[in-house]
Amino acid sequence: MSAAARVQPQRVVIVDDTADLRELLRLALTRGGFDVVAEAGDGQEGIDVVRDLRPDVVLLDLAMPVMDGLEALPTMRRLLPTAKIIVLSGFGATQMSARAVAAGADGYVQKGASLNSILDYVRDVTSGVPRAPRPLSVVPPPPPADQEDSVEQTDPTSTATTAVAEHAPSRPSPTGGGSGGGSGSGHTIPHVRSDDRVESSPASIASRVSSWEALGMAPYGIIELADEPLFRIVYANAMAQRLLGHASTAGTPLGLASPALAALVSYHRLDSDASFEVELVGGNVRATLRRTGWSVLVYLDSTADDVGLLRRAIATTAHEIRGPVAVINGIAETLGWSAADMDEEQRNRLMASVARQARMLDSITADLLTAAQIQRGTLRIDMQPVDLSAVIEGVVTDRYDVKVVIEDERAVRADPLRLEQMLSNLLANAHKYGQAPYTVRVRPAGSRLSIDVVDEGEGVPPEFREHLFREYARANDTVAKGTGLGLYVVRTLAEAQSGSVTYTPGDPHGSTFTITLNAC
Asked: Which residue ranges have biased composition labelled Gly residues (predicted)?
């Protein structure tokens, strides 16, 4: 009687730009009887690996730098006509699964599903069992009616309004006359607060909040212009500053802030209740003019655009959050069924993954909070002398493989936490869209210091460069990850610290993002 032939395990290649997730998938697949023969961090590297190893199964992420999964998929299918290629991504199945299948995928599983369910799905696909794409998660049921009734109802604007009222400079009434409204200390974005004291008493709010401070919190843009040929800006609230695309201080001619708006205001200046559409940096808006005794008020309504921005922001942020959440959930699941079998080194590696993914979530929520503070005009900046070497070391240690070059040892005047946020965003941006090697260089710039973040990727397409630092800006053809807030936050924080941020294309390729701040 002859011995039964030994069945060889199916050979798997995992292609995903998140090393922590690759490790979890490798543990799960190995536990399930598969042989993970290689891993890759982007589509091009994945093509090279499958060309050399000819695996039976490929798990392929969609959103990756250098080459994304949809680009790599047709080539992999030609190289592996009989292999099973399963797309793994955080995008919604209805959005991307049809495109992935059309490009040659055999299945689609969403990040966020449990490792056991992903393993079951891979088993079914490789054994020929037809399966629909796995759902990401189950939406929790609504709370019982008695719990809903017990939720305290609060006014979401009361806290922020009071905080601004305590620190905002006093302004004249928008309908009052006199030259006091032309003061050179008008609101600019961001509005700097000195502390976070909050008082929520309605009576206190009523007594403290002036009409100008209330308008500063308005969800539409408001600009007061001096009624003279140059239409100098007297006041612009936070939303108006965002729509104009940059901070415009009191006394700035409207023509410098927005030539298109200035031309239309000049044309309609004598009309009663004139209303027209105009394209601003922040999007297309409807402008309405109102006249006071000595000035012109311009109301900028961008409701339709803001709804579109909000929808895109929710979609991209949800996708960005899914990755870290999937890794953290996967680690918890892995420790649940195999912690006793792991050695100390492997457990420490998983715990380090949790820390990395938690920092990523913290970075995302920090950008969301900062963007909200920018819109409300309540951003807080704490300026002080800062040792750049210490901040850079804190950002790159245990997170990035970066060469650091310090050519100037002077300190800068900045907010250390905001500076760390800016550097983290630029380095994350370089890793998402650029290529190694990465360099952070500190160099003199006269009385200032410049901090360069350099990568050797393809660089930013010329047609997209003017949009780089706008809110929710993302190139239309990219599948790479990102909320579209990172560079917008960097630009606004730099301006809030009397600095700037610029982009310079490399020669012949690569990107350099430069933060310039005042030296101490």
From this structure: 175-185
* CATH 3.40.50.2300 domain extents, the chain: 11-127
**Both tokens assigned to 266:** 């000049």
CB 46 within 8 A of CB 14: no
**Beta carbons of 16 and 61 less than 8 angstroms apart:** yes
For domain 158-301, the CATH superfamily is PAS domain (3.30.450.20)
pLDDT, tens digit, for every residue of 123-137? Answer: 999 887 665 554 433
Residues contacting residue 28 through CB under 8 Å, at least 6 positions apart: 115, 116, 118, 119, 330, 334
Superfamily of domain 11-127: Response regulator (3.40.50.2300)
Decide: helix, strand or coil at residue 104. coil
Per the model's pLDDT, the better-predicted residue between 188 and 394 turns out to be: 394
> Is a pLDDT exceeding 70 seen at residue 237?
yes
399 backbone dihedrals φ, ψ, rounded to 5°: -125, -45
CB atoms within 10 A of CB 190: 24
Domain with CATH 3.30.565.10 in the chain: 307-518
| Per-residue model confidence as pLDDT tens digits over 92-113 | 544 566 677 778 889 888 776 7
- Contact between 198 and 154 under an 8 Å Cβ cutoff? The reply is no
The residues, any chain, with a CB within 8 Å of residue 81's CB and separated by 6 or more, are none
Q: Write the burial class of residue 108 (CB in 10 Å: 0-12 exposed, 13-18 middle, 19+ buried).
A: buried
Task: Say if residues 295 and 225 touch (Cβ distance below 8 Å).
Answer: yes
Please tell me the distance from the alpha carbon of residue 163 to that of residue 161, in angstroms, as a whole number. Answer: 5
Q: Give which of 249, 258, 256, 261 is closest to 190, Cα–Cα.
A: 249
Residue 17 to residue 72: CA distance in whole angstroms: 13
Between 6 and 249, whose confidence is greater?
249
Element (H, E) at 109: strand 107-110
In CATH, what number does 307-518 get? 3.30.565.10
Specify the pLDDT at position 311: 58
Instruction: For 32-51, give the DSSP string.
Output: TT-EEEEEESSHHHHHHHHH
Q: What is the DSSP string of 469-498?
A: TSTT---TT------S-HHHHHHHHHHHTT
Cα separation, 11 vs 270, in Å, equals: 76
- Provide the 8-state DSSP code for 447: T
CA distance 197 to 233: 30
Task: Check pLDDT > 90 for residue 441.
Answer: yes
Element (H, E) at 284: strand 283-291
pLDDT at 208 over 70: no
Residue from 213, 220, 226 nearest 300 by CA: 220
Mean pLDDT, rounded, of the chain = 76
